[in-house]
Amino acid sequence: MPIRSVLAGCGGYLPDRIVSNDELSRTVETSDAWIQERTGIRQRHFAAPHETSAFMGTAAARTALADAGATAADVDAIILATSTPDQAFPATALRVQAALGVTRGFGFDLSAACAGFIYALSIADGMIRNGQATGVLVIGSEVYSRILNWKDRGTCVLFGDGAGAVFLRAAKVSDPDTRGILSTHIHAQGTLGDILYVDGAVGQPDKPGHLVMNGREVFRHAVTRLAEAVEEALAANGLTHADVDWLVPHQANSRIINAMGKKLHLPPERVVITVDRHANTSAASVPLALAEARTDGRIRNGDLVLLEALGGGLTWGSALVRL
Ligand code: UT7
Which residues have CB under 8 Å from 28's CB, separation 6+? Predict the structure, then answer.
């Protein structure tokens, strides 16, 4: 009997330390006015030394499990999207597995930059549908504050730290419940790898690695690719703009988010925005925004939610989910 993935619970974690634009402008040649006007960002959270991707991912995962009424015993897979893993190996997902007390199944990290959570959701959905897993934690967890170049004002003001997680549960399609992931679509274009990247890694000699971005180029591709992704998701499900209740987009820039909302003819109050308070948390941004809108009661069971993201690679994609 066919199986689908139900998004049973969500959770998020943000470090305590909040850094305002004004605070940044004391050490970087920038201003609150510029950052707000160009990006919509007012503040971001920065991790303390103990707040690693595994630490924050574990906290978000615990909340997602509790939200789903599940425990560690229900988890048989953990897929963690990050560009800022705790170590080259073991996978950050397995640090989370150990911290949660999960003793079976498997886990791995996934590298697709800001689109990482959508990629991870897509892989998890496929594994649930083909019977490889029945309870999957999908996590996005990032500490970009550790890879920012503080001499590059064009990038260092844009990012923040945090983690978001969802717990997916396998459900038989004959169940009366119609909740679940309807579709995911993921894409990549490696030829655009030089417009957003990290210029180092543990595998490279003497290069800790800092984020480098051609903002205008990424902006241009984001608007085009994400608009295509939205149309692709709707067409694949025989749906129209009018069927979508909520857009939960990647939180890179409020100008990109507003353009996507207009494209879907969604009123602004149906578009979840956290970029003003979280800045861009890369793979964590979509699950953090989803968790916020679920927790405060905006998104309810039965709502049709469109998730989308684009990041370094280039990577991009969408997921259409009935909550
Ligand atoms: O998460 C992955 C996906 N990422 C994205 O989607 C990001 C996409 N890109 C963007 O969001 C925007 O391109 C940025 C927010 C990064 C930049 O906005 P922009 O409107 O494209 O600005 P710009 O890079 O064209 O820079 C405009 C001006 C420049 O000065 P000149 O050359 O016009 O004199 C920059 O030097 O703004 C200057 N500038 C700044 N000024 C104050 C750049 N950064 C800053 C800053 N503070 N932090």
Answer: 150, 153, 156, 157
Digit-coded pLDDT (tens) for 101-139: 999 999 999 999 999 999 999 999 999 999 999 999 999
Written as one letter, the residue type at 248 is: V
**Ligand 1 contact via 157 beta carbon (within 6 Å):** yes
pLDDT mean across residues, the chain: 96
Q: Is 39 in the pocket of ligand 1 (CB under 6 A)?
A: yes
DSSP string, 252-264: S-HHHHHHHHHHT
Do 285 and 140 touch, CB atoms closer than 8 A? Answer: yes
In this structure, which residue's CA is closest to atom 36 in ligand 1? 154
Q: What is the spatial distance between Cα 38 and Cα 285, in angstroms, rounded to a whole number? A: 18
More confident residue, 287 or 173: 287
Q: Specify the ligand 1 atom closest to the Cα of 311.
A: 2
Rounded to the nearest angstrom, the gap between the alpha carbon of residue 207 and the centroid of all alpha carbons in its chain is 26
- The residues that are catalytic are 114, 250, 280
Q: 268 is written with which tokens?
A: 């602004």
In short, whether 256's Cβ falls inside 6 Å of ligand 1 is yes
Q: Six-digit token pair at 322?
A: 């009935």
Cα gap 257→252, rounded to integer Å: 8
From 19, 95, 20, 11, select the one nearest 50 (Cα to Cα).
Answer: 95
Sheet with strand 315-322: strands edge to edge: 180-188, 315-322, 304-311, 246-249
Which of these, 300, 297, 246, lies nearest to 273 by C-alpha position? 246
Q: Which residues of 12-34 are buried (b: 16+ CB within 10 A; e: fewer)?
A: bbbbeeebebeebbeebebebee
Q: Which two tokens stand for residue 170?
A: 């396998």
For ligand 1, atom 44: residue with the closest CA: 154
| Cα separation, 182 vs 177, whole angstroms | 13
Q: How far apart are CA 95 and CA 103, in angstroms?
A: 12
